[in-house]
Design a protein that fits this description.
By secondary structure, the protein is an alpha/beta fold. It contains 13 helices and 10 strands.
Length: 284
């Protein structure tokens, strides 16, 4: 049996396929980004899931596509944890960009992730090229959930947020400075903690001018940093993956038009495309 995982910083989607490509089960765990989650916590989050633990010895192939897995050290840590748990499986860990590509295209294009974090790559039809490293929420992650969460907190504490919106923000979140600092500097997943504030923008019934400007500036910054730096940008479709991309689709379209970019597909959850990719792979 083959276990595939789309692993983000906030949550991970797992799907087990049998040898005919049929889905045995789908399940979800907390995020497993090895750059911000400790080895012991990675182990605990996987082992505590009853669907996974019941199949530790049954899985023959495990392909994990994850945020934070683009460099050797965190990828090795996660690989080690998975090998300890899935004792009979051939384990391979890939960067989440690869899953994003499989979910949207088989042809050349630029594929972007806008979720808890953000990233981009060029796919030539065969191989994924990611010339710009993903250095995480402290340096990069433009237009991601944690980017917008950070913007909201800064605007609130610097008194740049409109008063009515600030009042609503106060009523929905614990904004005690000590609470914020503990979550950012003492607990696991500070990037996911920041991203939790972004729901304040994306669950509103309508986008007010303040939110619109916030989103548009973030998308524009992402395009300038993560798309225009790729020499193929003017020649191929630009695809987007992730929850922030899904909820920002109209503004993404506006920004792509302004930069004369060819917008491709926008997909909220890559796991569905990944399932189809593996079904075809198993049955053909």
């Amino acid at each position: 049996m083959t276990l595939i995982t789309d692993g983000g910083s906030t949550k991970c989607d797992w799907v087990l396929l049998d040898n005919s490509g049929a889905v045995v089960f789908k399940t979800t765990t907390l995020g497993l980004n090895p750059t911000v989650v400790s080895r012991d916590e990675l182990h605990s989050r996987i082992a505590s899931n009853e669907y996974l633990s019941a199949n530790f010895k049954k899985v023959e192939t495990l392909h994990f596509y994850g945020a934070g897995c683009g460099t050797l050290t965190p990828r090795s840590i996660l690989n080690e944890v998975l090998n300890i748990l899935f004792t009979n499986a051939k384990v391979e860990v890939f960067e989440d960009l690869t899953a994003a590509v499989y979910a949207v295209t088989t042809k050349p294009g630029i594929v972007c992730i806008l979720g808890t974090g953000s990233n981009s790559c060029y796919f030539d039809g065969t191989k994924v090229h990611a010339p710009i490293p993903a250095l995480g929420y402290t340096l990069m992650d433009e237009a991601s959930g944690n980017y917008f969460g950070k913007k909201l907190l800064r605007d609130y504490f610097y008194n740049k947020m409109p008063l009515q919106i600030a009042s609503q923000f106060e009523s929905e979140f614990n904004l005690e400075p000590d609470e914020i600092k503990v979550n950012l500097y003492k607990k696991a997943n500070p990037n996911a903690y920041l991203a939790s504030f972004a729901q304040f923008i994306f669950t509103q019934e309508e986008i007010n001018p303040y939110f619109y400007a916030l989103i548009k500036n973030g998308i524009s910054e992402f395009i300038e940093c993560r798309i225009l730096n790729l020499k193929q940008a003017a020649d191929v479709p630009i695809h987007f993956i992730g929850s922030i991309a899904h909820f920002s689709k109209q503004i993404i379209k506006e920004c792509c038009d302004e930069y004369s970019l060819n917008l491709g597909t926008i997909v909220q959850r890559p796991i569905d495309g990944l399932i189809e990719y593996y079904k075809n792979r198993i049955t053909n």
